[in-house]
Amino acid sequence: MLVVQKFGGTSVGTIDRIRNVAKRVAETKSKGNDVVVVVSAMAGETNRLIDLAKAIVKEPDPRELDVLVSTGEQVSTALLSMTLVSMGLKARSLQNHQVRLVTDSTFANAHIKRIDAQKLTSVLKEGAIAIVAGFQGIDEQGNITTLGRGGSDTTAVAIAAAMKPHIKDGLVCEIYTDVDGVYTADPNIVSDARKLKQISYEEMFELASSGTKVLQTRSVLYGMKFGIPIHVRSSFNDTEGTMVTNETLDMESVVVTGISHDKNEAKITVLHVHDKPGIAHSIFAPLAEAEIVVDMIIQSASTEGHTDMSFTVPRGDYKRAIHILQDLVKQKKAAWVVGDEKIAKVSVVGVGMRTHSGVAAKMFKALASAGVNIQMISTSEIKISVVVNEKDMKKAVDVLHKEFELGNE
Amino acid sequence: MLVVQKFGGTSVGTIDRIRNVAKRVAETKSKGNDVVVVVSAMAGETNRLIDLAKAIVKEPDPRELDVLVSTGEQVSTALLSMTLVSMGLKARSLQNHQVRLVTDSTFANAHIKRIDAQKLTSVLKEGAIAIVAGFQGIDEQGNITTLGRGGSDTTAVAIAAAMKPHIKDGLVCEIYTDVDGVYTADPNIVSDARKLKQISYEEMFELASSGTKVLQTRSVLYGMKFGIPIHVRSSFNDTEGTMVTNETLDMESVVVTGISHDKNEAKITVLHVHDKPGIAHSIFAPLAEAEIVVDMIIQSASTEGHTDMSFTVPRGDYKRAIHILQDLVKQKKAAWVVGDEKIAKVSVVGVGMRTHSGVAAKMFKALASAGVNIQMISTSEIKISVVVNEKDMKKAVDVLHKEFELGNE
């Protein structure tokens, strides 16, 4: 069996933790598995390197910033590999010019195009453990690129996907993190939150993209596309974690699988805009140009040719967005712009929603009975998100967790 | 004209110094030159990385140690390149998998086999400054290798050599360091030591290999082999330094060009060994096996079938060497082993020695008149080295500098 194991920055953050990771890798290997390990930079290292660059220039050249920060993972691969070698195992660190993990040329946020399974296969055939630098790649011209924060998850799943056609006896991608797995809600908020044994790719994707941080969203999409079983588990104990897999029939019987929350957004409302074609464009185009990602969008009903437009943006971009949108007021396209940084988004997710009606009604009723005021609502096929006042967030998550009977029995 | 500029760890040791280096590079470029820059790791960085490895395992796997330490130069290339870009210049950092600086597979001490001039040429053709990581390479299999301490000098000269066939209007390799150039003796020891305007490759090689630290010996050999003019100069001022070039006719009129000293050796004497064939092998083979480099070797005249053998080893290997040689005593091949760590080697170097006799006699007389006792002597075609007591070193260098009239007139 091929086991691809990914260890994040916290898991390799100190010499002792690297030793622990090595033990776990050795154990997996000793069970007769082929092992590919993907590592992140030691916790804090990426920020140290970025600070070094910013001490020189405020907006460093993106190509060179990738050259700089990618050294963080290279250090981790070497340290882990030499630890394994010192334990008498065969191990080989591999950078992305060696694995030939080829991406497009979007520095700092590159997308993987292909991976050379040949190189990895030959290392595994020698009986060696392959230690691959996560988060980074090379483009067609051989420039060093990086995949963006959390990119190591994607590296791991993409490597598993590239190796899949060459594997006869099964494979799994293990994502080691500092939590035990995926929970029905954040255990720090809900005391009886329950660890899920399994979850579908789609649910995982919705949870990850609405605030649950255990897995990077792009890696979930890769897993779904190539059918890679992803095992999310803790690097600090041996407990089984959560398997992210294809949807199974019995998953549908569960209406809601988990609840996520996100305090990282802020709400903006543009008031009294002329309700005519092109108005949405004139609001969102300048934000897109400033690379501000807009999430939930709500347009109120039009009255007398005017409407209000509300949406959420990342909290870090809030002030910049407000500033940009003042232009609309100056141009008399809107009356004024207001906003609120102290909001939270709470989402319920479950593939069962597809076949069960009334989930939204049940959700809104529960929130109302708890006295939580809903400011915005958005839905997808398997998710319902509401924006509430930040101070109501914990109450909202709690009451929904109870309402949908997600806790430990 | 192509200017290859090499900046060592001290020259890029801080953000401010990197800015200074960038200014100098920009100035060279602004004069219409093509510029290739070779950088070392920031001062202290290589040791930091080695310490990290040694915290895990005493003798780290050599392949992985090279993967680890080579990140130091990568960081420097990125920081310098982004500085230049922020100044409005075109610059491109290049690692060795990009330049294709191919070496053999001797990790930690690899030798350069070839360099792909194509890649550098195309970067220069774009009008960009190429910033190359010194000290490192890749082997034929794409493994990361390093050239050993001081290897960045070699990288710079080797790059100049590789580019030479593609250059029409001349080239120079500038080695920036923390001294002004090559002196007739160490200015810290001899107050009227004089900076040399030029020096031949052979003299530079002899000086470098007998203790003068401004230039790495292997880089001098490269320069000699490919006829690359090497300009040794300070990164802290604009003073012209020393040109290392082919021997010119007028160089021969100067008998002695410079005096070097080396406190980094220790003397070992194996006493009363049977003077029979194979005895030298039984002494030096176990040292070679332990990778201890033996320098000067003196065998005393044989008396009654026995002889004494003296030689020098690097001071850091002294204790290990003594320990290894105790075996000879146990095997009754020698009576005993004695040694002295407190020695110094003082050498006079000059191509003029070839055509002038009496240099040795003059040297010994001068030392005798100063009361300096000579413990060992060795000579090459253009160098005479003596081992003296460490406490006599400064006196020896001083008197020889005066005797051969090397000071400022």
Summarize this entry quickly.
With 409 residues, chain A is of the alpha/beta class.
Describe this structure in words.
The structure is a homodimer of 409-residue chains. In chain A, a hairpin with a 5-residue loop joins β7 and β8. By secondary structure, the first copy, chain A, is α/β, with parallel strands linked by helices. Chain A has a domain at 2-178: Carbamate kinase (3-Layer(aba) Sandwich), CATH 3.40.1160.10. In chain A, α1 (15-30) crosses α3, α2 (45-56) runs antiparallel to α3 and α9 crosses α10. Chain A contains twelve helices and 20 strands. In chain A, the strands form five sheets. An eight-stranded mixed beta sheet of chain A has the order 3-6-2-1-9-11-12-10, with helices on both faces. A four-stranded antiparallel beta sheet of chain A has the order 13-18-20-19, sandwiched between helices. Chain A has a four-stranded antiparallel beta sheet with strand order 15-16-14-17, with helices on one face. The A-B interface holds A 15, 18-19, 49, 52-53, 55-57, 60-61, 63-65, 67-68, 70-71, 74-75, 77-79, 81-83, 85-86, 92-93, 95, 97-98, 142-144 and B 15, 18-19, 49, 52-53, 55-57, 60-61, 63-65, 67-68, 70-71, 74-75, 77-79, 81-83, 85-86, 92-93, 95, 97-98, 142-144.
The CATH topology of one domain in chain A: Carbamate kinase
- Major sheet: arrangement of strands of chain A: 3-6-2-1-9-11-12-10
Outline of chain A = globular
Low-confidence stretches of chain A: none
CATH-defined superfamily of one domain in chain A: Acetylglutamate kinase-like
Number of strand elements of chain A: 20
Largest interface by residue count? A-B, 36 and 36 residues
Mean pLDDT across the residues of chain A is: 93
What class, by secondary structure content of chain A?
Answer: alpha/beta
